[in-house]
Amino acid sequence: MNMLNLPKKVYFKSGSMNVALRELSEVYNLKRAFLVSDPGLYRSGTVTAIDNWLLDRGIRTAEYFSIGSPPSFADIRGALPKLLEFEPDVIVGVGGGTAMSAAKAMWLLYEQPELDLAEAVEAPERIRTGAKAKLVLVATSFGSGAQNSPFAVLRDDGGGIRVIKSFQLLPEISVTDARFTESLSSAQVRACGLATLSRSVRAFAADGCGDYTQGLLREAAGLVLEHLRAAEAGRPDALEKLHNAAALAGAAYGNVLETVDTETPPFPTAAEKAAAGGRVEELARALGFQDAGNLLAAWEALR
Predict the structure, then answer these.
(1) What is the DSSP letter of 72?
(2) Do residues 75 and 20 touch, judged by C-beta distance below 8 A?
(3) What is the pTM of this model?
(4) pLDDT digits (tens, 9 = 90+) for 129-144
(5) Strands annotated E in the chain
(6) Strands 134-139, 173-176: parallel, antiparallel or unpaired by DSSP?
């Protein structure tokens, strides 16, 4: 039986973060929030603003920012003593794919301290979450769509990339608020947009991509193709379109792919270009292009 697995609540409007986080106290009656982010966002003041917002509503907070890119097993284990001492009833990941992967893995380990992270990679059916805390993910950049996906991308003790996939890692609330994207540089916007486009096309062409996920991926790819240049120029409406595109892609590819490869070059590689056709042709025509070649030409123009 096919299913479309999504976070319980998805907020996706500019300015929606305040409404979403208000639920933590007013709907869920939560008291202790554990904030997870990366050092750059902490220094920028983004996390401090969220921290103060929660404190003003009577929610105590603790923070953890000692994570690499990608976060390592050691980073995740290092947070466990603080998690167990603070006993949060909600974990809030703030940032891009790095911070959200870290928040998912910390949630996993907080819920099941006895579960080894390497074991979670190999046996994701053992993962159980939600007994101690809820997870909230606030995306401040786009590219991974990790706020809506079941993947946590980590670095293991040997330095290799390991990906945990479990729908138990989907958050209670995901937030795609485009206000956070306005400080991104043109280069960051371009890189994120091309990453979203790559993930969207590859997932659309993958086996198991059905009617529901095709629609999400088609919309995501179309939004990037139409709005990337304006977003690079800093137009807020275009930035919001790309932020939404990443969220749509994340919601879709998590239901199509068994893993994600963070080291594959942007689409299309030489092999993908030579093999373009089939589902890529179908996507091209759905987006209004004459054929896959015209879609690839439009793509190359953006690069």
Answers:
(1) B
(2) no
(3) 0.94
(4) 999 999 999 999 888 8
(5) 9-11, 32-36, 60-64, 90-95, 134-139, 151-155, 161-165, 173-176
(6) parallel
